[in-house]
Amino acid sequence: xxxxxxxxxxxxxxxxxxxxxxxxxxxxxxxxxxxxxxxxxxxxxxxxxxxxxxxxxxxxxxxxxxxxxxxxxxxx
Length: 76
What we know:
There is one protein chain. By secondary structure, the protein is α+β, with helices and mostly antiparallel strands. The protein has 2 helices and 5 strands. About 20% of the residues lie in helices and about 30% in strands. It is globular and about 30 Å long. The two termini are about 15 Å apart.
């Protein structure tokens, strides 16, 4: 992901583990940023990394589609 450093936005993804139930919709929408842990829950591919500019629309879609509202975009 270091090649994308110049293209990063000022936001990062945040997963609220207290409400996430691991449905996996977010992982399908932005597999470049989210992986799956051993229990099926989303994990950030690179902790604390900003969302690349070319993935901001997909990240916003994933946040909007989360049925538990566990995914958020926060200022970096």
